[in-house]
Amino acid sequence: MKTTFQFFKCIGLLFLVLSGKHMLAQTSGPAVDVSEKYITKPTNGETSEIIGTISDDLGPLPGANIMLKGSDNGTTSNLDGHFNLVNVKPGQHVLVISYLGYETKEMGINVPEKTQVNVGTVILSVGSETLDEVVLNSGYRSSQQKALNIKKQSLAIMEVMASDAIGKLPDRNAAEAVQRMPGVSIERDHGEGRYVIVRGTPIAWNSTLMNGSRMPSTEGTSDNSTGTRSAPLDVFPSEMIEFVELSKAITPDMEGDAIGGSVNFITRTAPSKKTLSVNLGYGANFQAEKPIQNVSVVYGDRVADGKIGFMISGTYWNRNWGTDNYEVVYDDNFAINNLQLRDYLGTRTTAGLNAGFEYKPNADTKIYFRGLYTDFQDDESAVEQTFGFADEEMSLRVRHGITGITLYGSEIGGDHRFASGKLGIDWKASLYDAEMGNRNVPNSKGNGEAAYYMATFSTPVSYNNLTSDGYKFLDIDSPEGYNGDHYDNIQPYMTSTVGADQLQLDNQIAFKQYSKETDYTAQLDFTYEPTDKVKIKAGGKYKAMKLERGSPYSYYLYLGGSYGVPVNMTDYETTNYSYNGGYLTEIDSPYDNVLIDTPLNKNELPKLFTEENLDNPLYYHINFDKENPSSVGAFYTGNEDVAAAYIMGDVNLSEKVKMIAGVRYEHTSLKYSGYAVTTDADGQVISEVENTNDFGSLLPMVHLKYTPLDNLNLKLAYTRSFARANFSDLNPTETVSVISNPNTISRGNIGLEPTYSNNFDFMGEYFFDNVGLITGGVFYKSLENVIYSARSYETIDGTLYQVTEPNNSEKGWLAGFEVGFNKRLTFLPGILSGLGIEGNYTFADSEMDVPSYDVNETTGDVTETITTEKIPNQSQHIFNAALFYERGGFNFRLAGNYKGESLAVVQGNPENYRWYDKNFTMDLSTSYAITPKLKVYLELNNLTNEPLRYYQGTAERPEQTEYYSLRGIIGLNYNLF
Question: Which residue ranges does the record annotate as region Disordered (predicted)?
Answer without folding.
Answer: 209-230
